[in-house]
Structure formats: C-alpha cells, structure tokens
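Researcher: Here's a chain I'd like modeled. Treat it as a single chain, no partners, no ligands.
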Amino acid sequence: MTGDRSGEIIPAGIAPSKVSSTQNTFERIHRGTALILAIDTVILILIMSTIINIQINAGASALTQYIVIIPAIAGGLIWTGYRRQNEWAYWPGAVIIGLAAVFFAILTFNDILLFIQGSMGSLIMALLLGWATLGSIRRVRYHFHPGYRAAYFSEVDTSSLDIELEEGEMFAACSSCLAVLAIRPNMLSVDDRCPHCNNKLVSKQTAAKYEEE
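Model: Modeled as a single isolated chain. Structure tokens:
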C-alpha cells in the first residue's frame, strides 16, 4: 500500500465495478437501505395487522384494528426522514430493519422445522427467508460503520468514498470489521493492520504459509 491509501475504506457489500463517478458508494448504499427499510416497514405492519385480526376473531374489540394505524404512520415518518438523511431517523430506521431480521429469522427456523417434518415446500421458504434475514442483518451493520455514519450525517465529503484503484491494487475486506480496503497483495505483511479496527490484516499462520510457498 502506498501513501495514505491504506486508510481508505468503503462500506462492504458494494461491488467495485458498480461505483461510478456520478453516483458515489454512499448514495448507492443509502438508497438501497432506504428501499429495504420501506419493504421491512410494510412487512412489519402486515404482520401486526394479521396478529390484530386474529385477536379480533378471538373476541377482541373491533376497535383494536385501528391500533395498527399508529405504527403505520410512525413507520412512514421514519422512512421519509431516513430517505432525507434526517439525524433523528438514523437509529429508528436501523431498529426497524433489525426487527424485520428477527421476524425473518423466526419464520426461517419455523420453516426449517416444517421441512424436517416432511414439508418439502417449506425448504424454499426457509431459503428465501434466510436470505432476507442475512440481507437485513447486513443493512443493520452498515449503521455501525464509521464511513457510512459520517456520510449520512454529512460529516465528510461523500465523494471521498469513491476509490480509484492504482496499478497492482485490489479491493479486500478486513476479516474483523468488514471494512473494504485498497491493498497491494504482494506487499502485505503480518504487521499490517486495518486502519479502522486496528486488527491485523494477515494472520501469522497465513503469512507463514505463503512464505513457505
């Protein structure tokens, strides 16, 4: 790695080929996360509506059905605020996506049990819900990434998140924090550390293995 390029990081999960000069990495990730937030909000509202309808059928007051209006309005406001990068919507948006991930995980586990019991169709649902669970968890993790957080709150120039690789460089994710770094593979050593989490980029075992080869 040359100069201070070892400190350049971009949020993990975006293919380098998709980073363009007209639309930086943060904008792409934020737009995608806002879309996931909208979908997860709708799904949570539908789940709440289903639970309320079950309670009404079990004898609860019909007025109970109007309770869902409150979280629906709140979800809409949070999504709007998040899409506009309002500070107050940052963590509420992450919480909604996290709640959706929990529901997806529960449903995935339930479908796995049904598959074990002989329901072949449940396997497809388990795979789809499992994928949705992992996708939502990944979106929540973005909120703990200093680069994403700083760009959301406009603490840095988002154009600085676009990285042009120099000759001999490649993108690689830190195994500890998943920050994506521009590195020169043939120049890495066991002493190199991630500029974000300060953990070693190359383990002693890996370094010893390649020294032998």
